[in-house]
Structures
1.
Amino acid sequence: MKFSKINFSFLILICIFAIIYALPNLIPNFQFNKINNFLPGKVVNLGLDLKGGSYLLLQANVDEAINEKIEATLSEVRRTLRKNKIKYKNLKSNNNRISFIIREKTLSKKTTKLLEKFLKDFQLTKKENYFVINLSDNGISKIIQSTMNQAIEIVRRRIDESGTKEPLIQQQGKDRILVQLPGVDDPGRIKRLLGKTAKLTFRFTHPKINSSELNKNFVSPPGYILLEDQNDKEKFYLIQKKVMISGEQLTDARPGFDQDGGSAVMFTLTTAGGKKFGKITGKNIGKAFAIILDKKVISAPIIQGQIFSNGQITGNFTVQEANDLALVLRAGALPVPLHILEERTVGPGLGNDSIEAGKFASIVAVVAVIIFMIITYGMFGIIANIALVMNMTLIIAVLSLLQATLTLPGIAGIVLTIGMAVDANVLIFERIREEFKIRKNKFDSVDEGFKKAVSTIIDANLTTFIAAFALFIFGSGPIKGFSVTLMIGLVTSMYTAIVLTRFLIIKYISKS
Amino acid sequence: MFKFKIIPDNINFNFLKLKYIAFIFSFILISMTMIFLFFKGLNFGIDFKGGILIELKSKNSQLVDLAKFRERAFLLKAGEISVQKFGKDTDVLLRIQKQDGDNKKQMEIIEKAKKHFEEDFVIRRTEFVGPVVGDELKNAGITAVLLALFLIMIYIWFRFEWQFSIAAIVALTHDVITTIGLFSVFNLEFNLAIVAAILTTAGYSINDTVVVFDRVRENLRKYKSQDHYYIYNKSINETLSRTIITSITTLIALIIIYFFGGAVLSDFALAMIWGVVIGTYSSIFIAVSCLTYFKIYKGDKKDTSEPIPEYER
């Protein structure tokens, strides 16, 4: 029948902490209020489903990066063999491996030595004169990680340039990127911006064969490739495989207008790029120079005169398209294409309605439970209600402190804890009631009742906690938010019931 | 000391006598679930099935004529679509199946649908879930439920005896299955939030069961000379008041969410309301009834009980 001083001081500390950290949430526009400077806490971090915004899950096509690496290595192997005059046959690549046969077995040792010089992330195996080069697992994950880092960087730059505030961009799993855009209720433009890899190249067209002679079944001669016009699916160009200038040599790109007043993109090349561009354009006046973006031809203007570092791209753009193209060129090309796997967008209207409905439901639920508890338990009911209110304050305080995200299901979690939080109190009261029937002594029954109820409370809450924990591990987004509030609610309701209720009951019965 | 009593003090109801009726009732519930799942299946939401969902609200609080809206949505030529009122008469949910073709096709149809209705509707919410993610979410949901059941079983085994853990899992599985059945029978949308609701009610139900088991364990040690049947019944009766009061407070909160928490949460609340009711029922009638089929050892010590008080005789 004692309540130790240490326990008491700790209880007071907890209560003060709860009130201070929960307080900001009651002040409208807290961030802009002067009180902000005096309170340590922040307001609860609302999920996108409550404050409105867009959630995108993107998948990077990392296989493409791996293939590129294999193809580059294949060329390197070919170059090395030729340079050293090693005769070979059947040099080919498939499924992340390169294989070939050398004609003279005696050169096998020399070949191994030459290849090992540059094959770092590969495993080289040979059987007499048959060579197999495999990309190692380590090598694959290195490629994936560097691709992902680069992709995330470019995604961030593009989103920043589009003027979206406080985006959250992070890698998820091996090859996915999670993008959260608070306050964006129409992510259409962002999706378009992220939908382009934006690999820009300048290449020559075939000197003799014109677009009018081409169709999609045309078989391109070696060294050339058939590419579609970006606006007209029926129009084709025969383009040299060799890249003269690529987007990496761009330092800047801005939207603007051409001589005829149409939208265009003005670009600036690096010094080295400019020199090269000048040399190429100077030598090839009168030839068609195609501008290619993501395997589609934007336009193929005829070179009128020598151009150095400043040029322009025209191609029947709308103003918006020119803006977007300039933006993606400025931000740089994505290493691989990205696909949208999942999108969830909530407009500000729905978010506000959800918050209002959630607030209203919570308040009505608290009031209803308070009334019910007073009817059922009288004075003890009031004690349970004090514990309940303190419990709510604690939940909000912990949520604010951890900056955990409160989602719509999370609000349901809080309302549910209102109902369940009184459970611990009910267990205690019922136990005391039983003990009282046997002992007829208030103090002893309270003491005994508490002792017996506490073990039940811990068992019961721990098992519920396990279910919430399973949700936390496997849930995603809003569901995770729900499990966090549920877990916090379980812990705080246990504390308020075991400590606060006990304290209040002891105070109450020693007075009466 | 206490004002009002919901359950009278001297209650001594023979719950175990109703054991067989309860078994038949539960058997019917579970069979119905199985039949519905087999012949009708679940109405999976886009979380699991993949597809597109758009929530619209008409401008100027114009009431929505669903038939007209449906005709207008058909003009999108987006294949299978479904149209449904959502909460209020001004709000509509439009579901569009996954489009043939690649990812760009999905994005195109979202943009097209938005433009199509933009004039007199506000787009409140857009969701797109690709089939890959849908499958993953489904697997994650199943894993979460199984993992939770397993961990709970281990915990109860550790804290009680293995017999208790089996009885608890039987009761819990019963709750999970019948809740899934509820969604099949009434053709309610089964989505991620519902999995969360199921796990939460599993948590609630096990909470209830543990409270009763706790008392059973205590009484087994206390009344060694009494037979198990008497002890089980006594334990249920002793915890009955708490069981009822907690169910009422939780139900009050849930019913309020159901009516006032907004349309997004109403199915979620419904699953939990069912879960609380069925969880309370199963703790008493299924979990404890299962215990009667095990031999549970009462320990070596002598009967430590105080003489049985007057009111129990």
2.
Amino acid sequence: MIGGLLSVVLGSVLGGVARYFVSGFVARRVGETFPWGTLIVNASGAFLIGIVGALAQDDSSVFASADPWLFAVTGFLGCYTTVSSFSLQSLSLAREGERGRAAGYVGLSVALCLAAVSLGFAVVSLFR
Amino acid sequence: MTAKSGSNSWNTAILYACVAAGGVIGSVARYLASLLIPSLSGFPLATLFVNITGSFIIGFYSTLSGPDGRLFATTRQRQFVMTGICGGYTTFSTFSLETFRLLHDGRTGMALLNIAVSVVTWLVAVWLGHVLASRLNRLKGS
């Protein structure tokens, strides 16, 4: 229990810092009229969780044991990706009258993230 | 390095620390929720719960501490609560993995239900939080 909690804490420190860095970096590069930063964070996190999820199916993988999984998935990727910012940005776009962009953001986020998980699984099975 | 750029990087470091500290609090809360809330015959209820409540909290707090809000909050406090706690508490990656697993297991109906219910309830929650905080902001007195 304590080992698991510590794994989540360590992973989430790294995940939170990584999200703040990536979303800020993207926002400075491409501007903030559309939330590309959060979209890239969520899609890349979904790709990585696909890889880890596929690796964990193999019992000999490190991710098949509890603490590495809690560190990588619950801690790092859980903290790295975010639904709250996604929801707030969708609401902001809609309230600014940008309904098309809001709908596009929602659709693109869900589609890209599901595609990214599938891609993560596909990449692992390619090398197996 | 000039004094100004030195204080800028110090300020940035503090913001990173606020996000990291909030992220730990949010993530531990999400971990506890995942231990306490069982899945409902395969439906990932714990993830739905954290994403709904996290969306509500960010909608409520961002409006309450916004330009017309009655709660004064510094940039550091806003980053701590919104980017840190709410960001760490909610998760898009676990939602994606759980949906993919349902699809992978041939439970297409359950997967589509998870997508539809999640997206709609997240957006309703952030909107409700915003509306409630707007009402509070308009109340007389302070």
